[in-house]
Amino acid sequence: MSQAGSLHIRRRRLLLAGLLAGAFMLLGRGFQLQVLEGAEWEARAQRQQREKVALPAERGTIYDRNGVPLATSRERVRVAVAPREVKDREKVAVRLRESLGLSKEGARRALDRQRRWVVVPGRFDPAVRASLRELDGIYLETVLERFHPQGEVAMELLGGTSADGRPLGGLELELDTLLRGRDGAAVLRRDGEGDPIPGAFITVSDPTPGHAVYLTIDLGLQEIAEEALRQAVAENDAEAGDLIFADPRTGEVLAAASRRTAGSRHWRAVTDPYEPGSTIKPFVLAALLERGRVHLADTVFAENGRMRTGRRTISDVEPHGWLTAAEVLRHSSNIGMAKLVERLEPQEEYEALRDFGFGTPTGVGYPSESGGRLGRPGTWSAYSRASIAIGYEVSVTPLQMTLAYGALANGGVLMEPRLIREVRAPGGLVARRTGPREVRRAISGETAGAVAGVLADVVEDGTGRQAGLGDFRVAGKTGTAWVFDSAGYRRDAYTASFAGFFPVRDPQLVFLVKLDRGSRYGGAVAAPVTRATLAAALAARASPLDRRAMAAAPPGAGPFRASAPPRPSPPDPWLPPAPGPFVFRVDAGPPAPVPAGAERRAVPDVAGESGRDAAAALHGAGFRVRVEGVGRVREVSPAPGSLAPRGTVVRLTLGMSG
Q: I want to staple 139 with a disulfide (CB 3.0 to 4.6 A). Which of 59, 63, 80, 275 is the partner?
């Protein structure tokens, strides 16, 4: 064989050997990847191409006591575009602009073929499905978001949630384990570049909705309270305010309004304690009466308004001479109370206030509740006994003070506060129902009745006159305390408050109004707010008050039900003029006749205004007012602009805002 032929054979053999070696290497590598390392690479591919995602559960709805939704979950739509799948770009661009409100530039970016997947910013109404679902390249995903059908009503109490449903505070946080439900699961497929594969979304397990929670809050009373507090804070140039209404018989919180002109929104009535001033005096008097250290007719000399004790001077707003124990409370004499409390040992004063719930959390079930401050007697100074008796060196929360007045109203029993009436499972079955719970008996019924009678006198002929409602008797006490800051007590800023219950006979509501850092006293600031709110509650069509029971109670009746039968004729249905923003008609009978020859005036146009503002405007024009419903004015009769005699009853029909 020639040399050239031999060289050719060797080359062929070398080439074959190389091919065989390459083949063996490929087979070996394939064996390594497919057999030896197959499970590992398969798992890695699964992790890269398939993603397990949670399907959020529908968050449970929060209702008021009557089943009106306050916070619920609503369906929204998230829109995504796969630009390379879009066939008619012009048609899709028009639909995106019309349905989603996108600009031309926004629609252009969503259809950019340089991108494989585009999520349109925002969440949209489910109605967009009708115009987008049949378009190629458009993918719609259902998402849930928290929604408040009543707007901002009770938001400080409810708290909020983040965009992904996490609770941020308030009852949303406190009740999260009940409301959040159980998430479902789904599998999302992705391509080799990690982008979602359109339509490759597989549900593995369905989510379970959260429980529904029914609060003790009454929406109508809550709206009234918030509007009254808003206007009071604005008119008195206050930095903040709180207003609470509760049922003294059950401890149910019926309305809870908090307002701040700046800062975060939360229910300050349980988180921010304050020095109560004179609103604490009824409990000191109750302790004295309960232990037999004083009788209401006992007298004490009030030093004509100024008394020096050690290095301190105690003064009264108005000078007084000799006062009975009842008059000490009626006129809110600091000097008289400082003298009377000397008949109690420090330990007795401390125990009495603790029995009314001061110095310990109420257990209401709200994040970061404060227990206030009531130091043990061993930490008191020589001045502490008198200071605490007039509302200093002690701090309380508005809710604590409300419940303490509730004990005076219900015969001496401190009730546990309630915010939740019942909890229902997703199927509608009641999972939990709460009832009234007594914490302890603070004082006897006899003592409670005696103090309640004096508190009624405070409103009729004392510092709380501006809270009076005529024949509908109110019992309460004003309080004014200097604001304390880093520089000490400020003489130009006050915490003004008014606490009490209504009506005096068989009380149905216990309340507290507090305004922070204003420049006026509690009797001039907080008491009128109480009067206005109670008047509006009486006039509301869906009032939580039992007006029949109040109509059957004779004027001047005591705080507790007597055995004597009620008077056969109800009290005058008109609330007589008194200091306060407006007067409501509270019965459904025929209006009182208008005097002959009365001046005719144009009825103001108050449509769309709050009931409080509308009533104030109509009273200013010389008309009487009758209100039906809650919320903002929807109808006015006689019609706005028409001429009607002065004194005519104008009917306002209110409706709740959506």
A: 80
